Amino acid sequence: MKLKILITLLILPTLVFSQRPDGGKNGKNGQRPKIGTVTGKISDADTQDNLEFVTVALYAVRDTSFITGASSDQQGRFKVSEVPAGKMFAKISFIGYDEYISEPFIIKPDQKDKFLGNITLQSSAKSLDEVTVTAERDVMELGIDRKTFNVSQDLNSVGGSMTDALKNIPSIDVDSEGTLSLRGSENVTIFIDGKPSNLTSSSDADILDQIPASSIERVEVITNPSAKYDPEGTSGIINIILKKDRKGGINGNVSASVGNNNKYNLSAGVNARVSKVNVYANYSGRYQERYVDKTQHQNNLDANGNITDYNNQTSHRDDQRYSHLFKGGIDYDINDYNNVYFSATYNTGYNNKNEQLNLDYFNADGSVIDKVYRVNETNRNSENQEYNFGYRKTFVNPGQSLDISGQYSDGLRTTDGFYTEYDNTNGLVSDPMFEQRNNSPERNKIYLGQIDYVQPIGEKGTLETGWRSTGRDIETDFFSESMNGGMWTPDDSLNNNFNYSEQVHALYVMYRHDFGNWGLQGGLRAEQAYTTSQLEDNAVTEAQTVHNDYFALYPTLHIAYKFSDMREASIGYSRRVNRPRGRTLNPFPDYSNPQSLRQGNPYLQPEFIDALEATYQHGWENITLTGSLYYRYTHDAIQRVQSARPDGVMVMTWDNVDNSQSYGAEAIATYNMTSWWKFTGSANVYNLIISGDAGDLDLSNQAWAMTGKLMSSTNLTKTLSLQVTGRFSSKRATAQGYIAPMGGVDMAVSQKLFKGKGTLQARVTDVFNTYKFNVYSEGIGFNSDMTYDWESRVGYLTFSYRFGQAAKKPKKKGKSSSSEDSMDMMD
């Protein structure tokens, strides 16, 4: 794509120069009255995707001399202004496509405007024995406010899930539980196709494992979003763009994967496009069994820091999960300027966790206090449905558009827990001394309405404005009962009901203008938020209702400068917010582990973030280097807080501290060492400073940290590829301790089959079995060291196959797919 843009930018100045009286073959063109305008739209004949940076050149019929020209915008639309009177034709060309030549037409005083229609370009890629030859897209593309990563070239995510794809992207890290972090912060907003979703609103990241990596078109990492985007998330937005196949005819794909220790994946999709209608359906199913071993040592301390007693915890947990995801949709092009769409997604999942936990308690001298063997079994069922619909209108004026969209999603997750404790002090006793079971359904509904309007201002300016309203309702019930005298008795002191509702209404305006090599984009977003947290009373807890309504302004500013086609720089500022919700607000403790409780804080306030970032990109013949410097200042920063009760039980909650600061540098490099061997590397070095306290607990901490990734991609033959990916994370600071360094290496080999339509791939994750998670924490009355060792080294074998053929279209010169008359009827 960059090569196409570069060539286009090189050609256009030459064409424009040649229209001078001394530059073209016929100097008289420059003296004719410039009264006309020529417009149209350009798209790919197979995929129907809009084509940007396509060269449009006008030539005189009399002597084929060049008159003037332009290029298409992001919507594929072009506008050639100040066209002199006369008879002419248009020549439209783009690297990788067959040239298009229009029928001759006339510009004169009573016919000043000419619409060439919706022009489709046919790919010029040649087919040799039916082997498809395609050019690779750049791994990363830089925009004024985002970095876009194309994941299709990542062999280590083939046959895997969305989580597998995300963990190989620079700036993004994924821990053992699937939790995402961006530049060291877990407070990141995840969008799918630019919208919030119940597919990503779960308190854990299990749902990301239900979406196959093969369904991802690209991932946008927006660390300094413009005013158009939701300002939520401390570190920014991860926007996952799913593939939308719009090829003509009927096309499809199927993929199956098998991994050691009972891991199976299956996905399939079909797309049919006939004339103005595009219909698609996709399915993915996953079944996996995994295990994780955990060890924890906790010291309980007196006021002088001396150990009073301690405990050791060791556990082994087996996870069994399966899921099904269905998605279908329809797009209808009413005409060249109006499109409507609808899609529906349904997914269901099941996750069983069976944990055997040993809790051993000792005095300071090592004498035994108590030993308990506990069995925790949780069964979680989830069901989500989501509907998206919208209308899009474009206009004759290139770049002008109106989008109206809506979304409704409803997710239900039900967790059933069964907990049994046995006395193990003098050897395991067969009869349990404690039995408990509970049921906890959680319903999450999201409502969204949105209007976006884009209006070009002159030749260099663009005004964008819009409205967005989002509603969210979360209902959580918890019912527990314990065995008492051979009968199940309700635990009235534990049972509770917690509800959270949220409405956010926003208006935004944004303006962008180009001044030569300079680009300026500024915007302002105004939001009114209404939130309510409500806990119903029970035997020991009074009802609590907390309202938190607030109005906030979120300004953004981006400035970019293009030194040349290979060098550009930008600087941006944005204000953001992180709103607490769900488990961080629910004040009722989670008793699934009696030694480690977790409870929310209903008085938790949102944290506000000021973010500043400067980026520079320089390209050479075989190397592209992108460097960024960034700074984040967080007001009322939300931090996890741990404390020990007098009985030694750990309690974890959340609280606002004074502030936190993070600043650092990030570098991303691609190096094409040869035509068949390419490297992509990234490194992020940052300093996290936490300042503040929670009651008597000092939460101030500071430490430097680093993360790095390196990917080697080798084409061993024309059909055989090898990829090796390494990841490393240094020691990182938390509010009360640190996370130890960790890293691992993945490897994949891929062989194309059946003349390019099929692919057989083998991959191994964490080849050297080094990826472990260790965290150290300390506070008033305790210190703790905990290690997770999960099944990270897994081998997979995946086969995928593409089928179908695009509908054949007759090649025509001088005719487009829509006439001038149809355009006149529209507007």
From TrEMBL:
Membrane topology note: Multi-pass membrane protein
UniProt xrefs under SUPFAM superfamilies: Carboxypeptidase regulatory domain-like, Porins
Disordered: annotated span: 807-827
Keywords assigned by UniProt, alphabetized: Cell outer membrane, Membrane, Receptor, Signal, Transmembrane, Transmembrane beta strand, Transport
Gene Ontology CC: cell outer membrane
Signal peptide start and end residues: 1-18
Domain TonB-dependent receptor plug intervals: 159-236
Ranges where the Outer membrane protein beta-barrel domain occurs: 393-801
InterPro entries in the record: Beta-barrel_TonB_sf, CarboxyPept-like_regulatory, OMP_b-brl_3, Plug_dom, Plug_dom_sf, TonB-dep_rcpt-like
Bilayer-crossing regions: none
Pfam families according to UniProt: CarbopepD_reg_2 (PF13715), OMP_b-brl_3 (PF14905), Plug (PF07715)
PANTHER family: PLUG DOMAIN-CONTAINING PROTEIN, TONB-DEPENDENT RECEPTOR-LIKE BETA-BARREL DOMAIN-CONTAINING PROTEIN
Similarity comment: Belongs to the TonB-dependent receptor family.
The name this protein goes by in its record: TonB-dependent receptor
Species name: Flammeovirga agarivorans
